Amino acid sequence: MVLELYAKAATGAPDVLGDCPFTQRVHLTLEEKKIPYELRLINVSDKPQWFLEANPEGKVPVLKFDDKFIPDSDVITQLLEEKYPDPPLAPPPEFASVGSKIFPCFFKFLKSKDPSDGTEQELLDALSALEEHLKTHGPYINGDKITAVDLSLAPKLYHLEVALGHFKGWSIPEHFTHVRNYMKLLFSRESFEKTKAAKEHVIAGWAPKMLMKIEDPKPVDIRVPTEHRHGVLLIGRREEWSCWFANI
Ligand SMILES: N[C@@H](CCC(=O)N[C@@H](CS)C(=O)NCC(=O)O)C(=O)O
């Protein structure tokens, strides 16, 4: 039985691996455990009917295991740990949630239009906690060996770096030396190189979320990418592009 990983296809490029950090977490786990698998891409803007029947919530990642479709990266990574215990990736329980505030803080800061609303500071505080942890326990979250916490954090830190760099011209301050080295270490792993989305797809994936107005939090009408500008795939209506460009 070869496992099948259903992963997000890139926005506007249905044959290219997309930018879902939860999918990459599972993908990294399969690679690090050297479990054979087949990758299947799902266009999340136009999900096939059979996929919605097998997985009514419609989200990726989904793992086909023993003829069952299993969604959710938490559930999948736990299953993989049980069925393929070698190499063990479970972290010590006290380290299981290290860094877990970073992704929600990154998202709030990315969407923020008010530089004094405290969202940047919240992100800096979350990064500071990771810096302190790594100072004592690094270079990975649990020392020398990579664990599942690292595999969950790596794609999120990658999205943070790419999206904040692109949309806000922001980067992790230089004094976070342990966090910056940690990111280098994670991003240079063979498994990461093999499973990461291209930067332009990460940017295209975040662009519609950047277009959501604070007072009107409904997602905009997303259509297939129709134009390139500044090397970025543009999606959505023309007036929304100008609103997006006005904000970068
Ligand atoms: N809690 C889920 C989150 C998965 C998730 O949000 N996936 C997104 C892509 S990054 C998705 O499938 N979005 C498409 C949709 O919601 O229709 C997990 O950890 O697997």
TrEMBL record:
GO BP of this protein: ascorbate glutathione cycle
Record's keyword annotation contains Oxidoreductase: yes
UniProt xrefs under InterPro entries: DHAR1/2/3/4 (IPR044627), Glutathione-S-Trfase_C-like (IPR010987), Glutathione-S-Trfase_C_sf (IPR036282), Glutathione_S-Trfase (IPR040079), Glutathione_S-Trfase_N (IPR004045), Thioredoxin-like_sf (IPR036249)
Keyword Transferase assigned: yes
Transmembrane segments: none
CDD domains cross-referenced by the UniProt entry: GST_C_DHAR, GST_N_family
Reactions catalysed according to its record: L-dehydroascorbate + 2 glutathione = glutathione disulfide + L-ascorbate; RX + glutathione = an S-substituted glutathione + a halide anion + H(+)
Residues of the GST C-terminal domain: 66-220
Gene Ontology molecular function terms on file: glutathione dehydrogenase (ascorbate) activity; glutathione transferase activity
GST N-terminal domain ranges (all copies): 10-88
One Pfam family hit: GST_N_3
Alphabetically ordered keywords of this record: Detoxification, Oxidoreductase, Transferase
Family according to the record: Belongs to the GST superfamily. DHAR family.
Protein known as: Dehydroascorbate reductase
Organism per entry: Protea cynaroides
